C-alpha cells in the first residue's frame, strides 16, 4: 500500500460497526438502501431510537453508499430531526407548542411536565382553528391546556382509521365512459385553478405535462405550512378518498403510473390511516406515501421534489420547470390536496358546481381557513369572492364577544395585512392592487386587542426560521428583518430597500413574499409603525 493510500485511509471516516448496521437494518424496511428513501430512513431511525445517533448515521451512509457528509447535511436541514451524540439520552417525549398567530392570541401554559419531556416552540402545526395547540409526539392536542397535554403524553393514541371507499369517477375514467378530453374540458369549463396558492389553471397544467415525453409522474403536495393554513389537513381528515380519487384521475389523465403523496410531518397522525386507504386502492397506479420533516420551503414544488428524492429541500432554478424535468428527471404534475378534492367533485357533479356559485364578480367555491378572533373558526367552503366581513358574519358566527374587526391576513403569513376598511373579494387577482394576495386563502382575523407589530415580528421570525439558506437575499434578508422589526422604531428606508432586494433576487416565493409582512403595515397602518 502506498503512503498516499495509507494517509487517505487514516483520514477517512471510520467504518460503521456491525452492531450499528444490525440495529438500523432491524428498524428499516427491506428496500431502505434506495437513494430516494434517505429521509424516510431518517424518520425510521428517529422513530426507533428517539433521535439520530452518529453511529447510526454512519451505518446508514455505509449501507446506502452515500458519503457521511451527505447524510449529515440532509438530517441537519430538517427541523424535526434530532441529531444526538452517541452518549446522549433521547428525550422521553417531544412536545411541540405552537406559537403561530392564532395560538399566540391564547398562550398555552404547560404546567409541570414529566421528566425527560423536551419542549419545542414551533411556528405552526396546521390546527389554527383549535388554538392553542400542541403536538405530543404525533398526537395533536386541540384547545390545549396542561391537563390535556399531560393526558396526551401519558395515554396511548389510536389515530382514526378510514373505512373502505368507492371511486365512482375513477371507474368511469378507467372504463372509457369518461374520456380524457371530456374530463379536461369539464375542468376548464368549471375554471378550476390550483388551490395551493399559485392559482394556475388546472386543466392547462395537466395538458402541459401530458404533452411531455413519458414516463411521467404525479405528486400530491400535502405540505401546507403557511401559518393560518389548515385546509389540506381538513380534507385529508374528512375527504381523503376524494383527494386520492382526484390524484388517481390526474395520473390517468397524464398517463402516469405512479403517484407520490408528500405529507407534512406535523400531520403524522394521519399517516397510518392514509397508508391503509392507499393499500386498498383499485387499479394499477401505485401511490407512495412520504413524510416531510419540518421544512416550510418544501411546499414549493421544486423543493418538494428535491425532498422526495431524499435530499435537502432546496428550490431549483427554473427553467426547466417540473412539468418538463421533475421528480427523478421525469415530467411531473404537482397538485395540492384541495385541487384534487375539487377534481373529484367537479367530475362527479359537473362544472355547474362552480358555475352556480360565487360573489362580487367571481365564480365558483373556495375553501377558506379562518382563524383568530372569530366565534367559529375552521375550514369554510364558501362562495369564491366573498368579502372578509361576509365570511365572518355568515360562516364564522361573527367576531368574538368584545372584539371588533381591525385587520386580517387574507392569504396567510405571506399575504400581507389588510385593514377592516378595505374588503376586496377574497379571490385570485383581487387583492394584488392592495399589496397582498389570496394565496391558499388562510384568513387570520385580528381585533383591536391585537398588537400588529408583534404579529409582524412573529411572522418575520417564521420566515427567518424557514428560509432554506440557499440564496443570500432570503437567508440574510429574513434574518435582518427580524432585527429591524424587533427594534422600537422601524427604519422605513432600510426596510424598503431590504424588501426590494429580497423580491428581486430571491430564488423562490419565500424570500419574495416575506416583505409583505412589514410593507403592508407601512402601506395600510402607518399609525402603528411610526
Largest sheet: 5 strands, mixed
Distance between the termini: 72 Å
Q: Count of helical segments?
A: 23
Mean pLDDT: 94
Strand order of the largest sheet: 12-11-15-13-14
- Work out the number of β strands: 15
Q: Uncertain segments of ≥5 residues (pLDDT<50)? A: 1-12
The radius of gyration is 24 Å
Assign an overall shape.
globular
Helical fraction: 40-55%
Beta-strand content bin: 5-15%
Structural class designation: alpha/beta
Fold blueprint:
Elements: H1 3-11, H2 18-27, H3 38-49, E1 52-53, H4 54-64, H5 68-77, E2 83-84, E3 93-98, H6 101-104, E4 117-122, E5 134-136, E6 139-141, H7 146-154, H8 168-175, H9 180-190, H10 202-210, E7 216-222, H11 231-238, H12 240-254, E8 256-263, H13 271-279, E9 286-291, H14 301-308, E10 332-336, H15 337-349, H16 352-355, E11 365-372, E12 378-383, H17 388-395, E13 405-409, E14 418-419, E15 442-447, H18 452-466, H19 472-485, H20 492-505, H21 509-513, H22 516-524, H23 526-529
Parallel strand pairs: 1-2, 3-4, 7-8, 7-10, 8-9, 11-15
Antiparallel strand pairs: 3-5, 5-6, 11-12, 13-14, 13-15
Helix pairs in contact: 2-4, 3-4, 4-5, 8-12, 9-10, 12-15, 18-19, 19-20, 20-22
Amino acid at each position: 500500500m502506498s503512503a498516499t493510500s495509507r494517509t487517505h485511509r487514516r483520514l477517512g471516516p471510520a467504518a460503521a460497526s456491525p452492531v450499528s448496521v444490525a440495529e438500523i437494518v432491524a428498524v428499516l424496511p427491506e428496500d431502505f438502501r434506495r437513494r430516494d428513501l434517505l429521509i424516510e430512513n431518517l424518520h425510521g431511525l428517529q422513530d426507533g431510537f428517539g433521535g439520530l445517533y452518529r453511529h447510526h448515521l454512519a451505518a446508514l451512509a455505509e449501507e446506502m453508499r452515500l458519503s457521511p457528509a451527505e447524510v449529515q447535511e440532509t438530517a441537519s436541514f430538517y427541523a424535526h430531526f434530532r441529531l444526538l451524540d452517541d452518549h446522549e439520552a433521547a428525550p422521553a417525549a417531544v412536545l411541540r407548542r405552537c406559537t403561530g398567530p392564532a395560538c399566540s392570541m391564547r398562550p398555552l401554559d404547560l404546567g409541570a411536565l414529566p421528566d425527560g419531556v423536551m419542549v419545542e416552540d414551533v411556528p405552526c402545526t396546521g390546527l389554527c382553528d383549535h388554538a392553542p395547540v400542541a403536538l405530543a409526539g404525533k398526537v395533536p392536542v386541540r384547545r390545549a391546556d396542561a391537563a390535556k397535554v399531560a393526558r396526551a403524553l401519558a395515554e396511548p393514541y389510536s389515530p382514526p382509521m378510514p373505512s373502505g371507499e368507492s371511486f365512482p369517477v375513477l371507474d368511469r375514467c378507467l372504463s372509457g365512459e369518461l374520456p380524457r378530453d371530456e374530463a379536461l374540458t369539464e375542468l376548464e369549463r368549471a375554471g378550476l385553478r390550483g388551490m395551493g396558492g399559485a392559482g394556475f389553471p388546472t386543466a392547462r397544467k395537466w395538458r402541459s405535462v401530458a404533452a411531455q415525453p413519458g414516463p411521467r409522474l404525479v405528486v400530491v403536495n400535502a405540505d401546507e405550512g403557511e401559518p393560518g393554513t389548515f385546509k389540506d389537513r381538513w380534507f385529508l381528515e374528512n375527504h381523503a378518498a376524494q383527494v386520492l380519487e382526484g390524484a388517481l384521475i390526474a395520473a390517468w389523465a397524464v398517463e402516469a403510473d405512479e403517484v407520490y403523496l408528500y405529507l407534512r410531518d406535523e400531520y403524522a397522525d394521519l399517516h397510518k390511516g392514509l397508508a391503509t386507504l392507499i393499500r386498498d386502492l383499485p387499479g394499477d397506479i401505485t401511490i407512495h406515501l412520504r413524510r416531510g420533516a419540518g421544512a416550510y420551503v418544501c411546499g414549493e414544488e421544486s423543493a418538494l421534489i428535491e425532498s422526495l428524492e431524499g435530499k435537502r429541500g432546496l428550490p431549483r432554478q427554473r427553467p426547466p420547470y417540473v412539468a418538463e424535468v421533475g421528480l427523478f428527471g421525469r415530467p411531473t404534475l404537482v397538485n395540492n390536496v384541495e385541487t384534487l378534492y375539487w377534481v373529484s367533485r367537479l367530475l362527479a357533479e359537473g362544472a355547474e358546481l362552480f358555475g352556480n356559485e360565487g360573489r362580487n364578480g367571481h365564480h365558483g367555491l373556495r375553501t377558506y381557513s379562518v382563524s383568530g378572533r372569530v366565534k367559529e373558526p375552521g375550514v369554510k367552503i364558501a362562495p369564491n369572492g366573498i368579502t372578509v366581513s361576509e365570511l365572518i358574519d355568515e360562516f364564522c358566527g361573527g367576531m368574538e364577544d368584545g372584539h371588533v374587526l381591525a385587520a386580517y391576513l387574507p392569504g396567510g403569513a405571506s399575504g400581507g395585512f389588510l385593514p377592516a376598511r378595505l374588503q376586496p373579494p377574497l379571490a385570485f387577482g383581487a387583492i394584488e392592487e392592495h399589496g397582498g394576495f389570496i394565496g391558499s386563502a388562510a384568513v387570520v382575523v385580528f381585533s383591536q386587542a391585537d398588537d400588529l407589530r408583534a404579529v409582524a415580528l412573529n411572522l418575520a421570525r417564521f420566515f427567518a426560521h424557514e428560509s432554506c439558506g440557499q440564496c443570500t437575499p432570503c437567508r440574510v434578508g429574513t434574518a435582518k428583518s427580524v432585527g429591524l422589526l424587533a427594534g422600537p422604531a422601524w427604519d422605513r428606508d432600510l426596510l424598503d430597500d431590504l424588501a426590494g432586494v429580497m423580491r428581486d433576487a430571491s430564488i423562490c416565493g419565500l424570500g419574495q413574499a416575506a416583505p409583505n409582512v412589514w410593507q403592508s403595515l407601512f402601506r395600510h397602518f402607518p399609525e402603528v409603525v411610526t
